[in-house]
Amino acid sequence: MKVARLVASMAAASVLAAGALATPAEAASPKVQITRVYVNAPGPDGHTNKSVNGEYVRIKNKGKKSVSLKGYTLRDRQHHVYTFGTFTLKPGKTVTVHTGKGKNTSGTLYMGRGWHIWNNSGGDSATLKNAGGGKVDSCSWKTVRSYKTC
C-alpha cells in the first residue's frame, strides 16, 4: 500500500513538474525579432549612399519590456557584422537598420557601409545575436525581388 501511494505521488509530481516546465508558444519565441529585410534597393545598385541605404533590416520588440541592444550584432552569411552601440528598443517599437551612412535616431540606425551587403540572388541570411553571442533571431531567403518578410 505504501508503494502504491509512493508511485501515485511520484506520478502526480511528474505531471506537475512537466506543467511547470512547459512554456507558452509566445514565451518560446524571441521578443526581439527581425520582421523584414529589404535586400534589393530600388533602382540599379550603385555606390551612392541613397542606393546603399535602400537596403535595410527592420527589428521589432514584441515584448512588454524595453530591451537594451548594446553589444548585439546583426550579420549576414559573408560575415559583414554591425554591432549596436548604446540603443534601447522600447516595447512594441521597431528600429530600421540601413546598410549605408546616416544620422542615428530613435527609430533608424546606420551600419556605415559604402556598398550593398544583402544578397538578393543566391540567398543570404540576416542573423541577430545578443551581446553574449547567442542567436536571438534569423531570417533567411533564397532569391527575392525586393524584400523578405520574416
Automatic annotation (TrEMBL):
It holds the Pfam family LTD. It comes from the Bacteria. Residues 22-149 form the LTD domain. The keyword Signal applies. This is LTD domain-containing protein. Residues 1-27 form the signal peptide. The keyword Signal applies.
